Amino acid sequence: MVDVLSQNEIDALLAALSSGEMDADELKKEETQRKIRSYDFKRAVRFSKDHIRSLTRIHENFARYLTTYFSAQLRTFVQISVVQVEQLPYDEFIRSIPKMTILNIFEAEPLEGRMVLEVHPNIAFAMLDRLLGGVGTAPSKIAALTEIETTIMERIFSRCFESLQEAWKTVLDIEPRMEALETNPQFMQIVSPNETIALISLSTKIGDTTGMINLCIPHVVLEPIMSRLSVHQWFVSEKKLRDEQEIEAIKASVSRAQLPVVAELGESTISISEFLGLNIGDVISLNRTVNTGLSIRVGDKLKFIGSPGMVKDRVAVQIDEIVSEGVVERDE
Description:
Elements: H1 7-19, H2 24-32, H3 49-74, E1 78-89, H4 90-96, E2 102-109, E3 114-119, H5 121-131, H6 147-167, E4 175-182, E5 196-206, E6 209-218, H7 219-222, H8 231-255, E7 261-264, H9 272-276, E8 294-298, E9 301-311, E10 314-324, E11 327-330
Antiparallel strand pairs: 1-5, 2-3, 2-4, 3-6, 5-6, 7-8, 8-9, 9-10, 10-11
Helix pairs in contact: 3-6
């Protein structure tokens, strides 16, 4: 952001230049000197601001889907929103979460590698309490999970990955699959400690209980699709998805349309007196021989040539040729 000087600051600057307190040549020299910025190689910047904005948009949708999912499952007030999306070393993420927490380790084909959905114990146990008939409050003391509690949590969190799949549709069709549920971060080593990760922090409120849900995605997992996370690609993908949805809607509407299909044996011209004099057993000569195929029309367009027959005591027509743009194509 450009600094704008006030009139007093301008007057003071001009006075300093006039009195010799400041040297204009020195100021120019300082301006042209190369500026040095420190860089921490342990905290490598792998995601650009463009990538961070795209990840934020994706997971804002994820937060909305999660809100709907958990509200339906828990039947109580749930509010989830994205607090921040940042990049940091994996080791720093591990040190920032509680020693006892809920770690949902999962994969998402076609992406290669493992990711983690970390749920703060306050939130996880509030969900558990609600599912087991309570009001949805977290216990004052967090204890180890029993086998029944572990099974319940695996079930509810494995289903929430459907929301993640839906949120990523505009970028990539992924198929998230739960691999394991851990409670001790020290037993979870999905990448090297210095590997850069994207950390998506979701603020979560269930009733009166608040906490965080963190989604950890290593850079090596997203590296093959980094180009798709650009803003330009994002809007192109959204437009492509809308176009595909419109095409599918048109196809669905057209497929429900009803058209008459008529198989014509032939034509004949007779007078009105002959028509009125027709009796049972009379024969009408048509303009086609028995060896000539039937004209099969869809609406008023000639589409097929066929031959008559019977199927299970019912009159039927077998398609022998396809008429395309006035040309008869033989069906081999």
